[in-house]
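Exam revision sheet. Question 4 asks you to relate a sequence to its structure. Input first:
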Amino acid sequence: MAQKQYIKHLYEEEGKSLREISRIMDLSFQTVRKYAYEDNWNQDHLPNVEPSHHPLLGPYIEVIDRWLEEDRRAPRKQRHTASRIHARLRDEYGFSGKYSCVKKYVRKKRYLMSQQDAGYLPLAQPMGNAQVDFGKFVYNDGQDRKNDGYALTISFPYSNHALTQVFPSQNQECLLEGMKRIFNRIGGVPVKLKADNMTTAVAQVLKGTERILSDGFARFMLHYRFQAEFCNPASGNEKGNVENKVGYSRRNFFVPIPVIEDFDIYNAELFERCEKDADREHYKKHVPIRELWEEEKQKLLYLPEYEYEVFRYESVRLNKYGYAVIDTNSYGLSPELSGQTAQAKIRFNRVEFFYDHTLLKVYPRCYGRDTEVLDWTQYVGTLCKKPHAVEHTRFFHQLPKLWQAHLLSTQGKERKGALLLLSEIVRDGNAGLCDDTLVMAGECGRTDADSLRQCYYMIAKREYRPQPLRLASSAPLLNYDPSLTAYDGLTGGAKNA
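Answer key, structure tokens:
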């Protein structure tokens, strides 16, 4: 409203032209003209609603209503205009009426549809509306260690259908990734999504229902075109359906304590269990949940053309050890880049590090606290400068077992030569050939640095691998009798011989 008032002020009080106002306020000329010329500011300024009878449109009203209802699920730019409806009626149904007739009806119908959407009582459960929440549970990581997990559930109160995905955290990347996966699974997007004031979605709670959204959540919401509604503070009961579903999932899907070694594999199985659960009878309507869900799915918004990629960027300065710190956890990159700034592309399950637009390293995302995440391949180049310190490094235990033993058995130039070769193997992207190199050299009885290098080249670089000799199975037969008279002369004749 303040913007409209300012347009009026600039036009009437300061005498600015419409184009000047458009430039000053960065608004379209049409918008500026609309409010500059507006004289009726009554709040209840309703559109003109035509009488309910439409003799010419009578046979076509059902078709028009169906198109307008389908438009609710389509992107705004791909919805029917009155002109497009008139053209389709003319071309597909032989409609001979005027465009103005169609325009008036479409205008009225859209107004009535908007009023219908706004008229739901708080207790009503409109089709296509959903609720979302996290629930905490405990899982076994496969190594007999208990960890906290977080189950993201989206429920649909009308049908009482719900889907759940689990993650190691409830951060924004996990929230958005879970929502995206559920949207893809159901093949649509909820019209409205209700949530509590989670910090991953809400940056600031204002008075009433006003919220300042986090940048990541706002982008996600705009991409998928759903409306977001947030509960009043400390009022989780306002999304009671998903609260119940979170408890239901914990009791039925996570008892006994599940073993989760791979979240992607477990989540695929969890989708199947959620779909199977839809065979239950609705607690109130006494029909299968699946039957209600199939009806409700028709009200979902269409998925966007492009899938949303869930990640966030963060600039990180590497310390003197070449560590980049993300969420208190240190990721080892390279001591050679100490003091430099790298870019971290942070996803829910991995972190990709870039320097000067070049990918340095991809690490699985760590969800511990103050944990060091190292990879020996990032440090072997620096280790060549200090070969005597090899057994004292924090990553020595990560080296292949054969190379640990070999390096401990060497010293001086031999150790440095072995480390230089190891660094070359890593730079070539052939870390998987480290053990093969040592095995081949051992079979030849030579493990010096030069022999190791030759064996590596024979394995990895074809130009250093000689072609095997092919020998005949037997000696060739001669088809002539050689003359030995010359030899007889040298020995004094055949008699002396």
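Marking note for examiners. Residues 312-373 form one domain.
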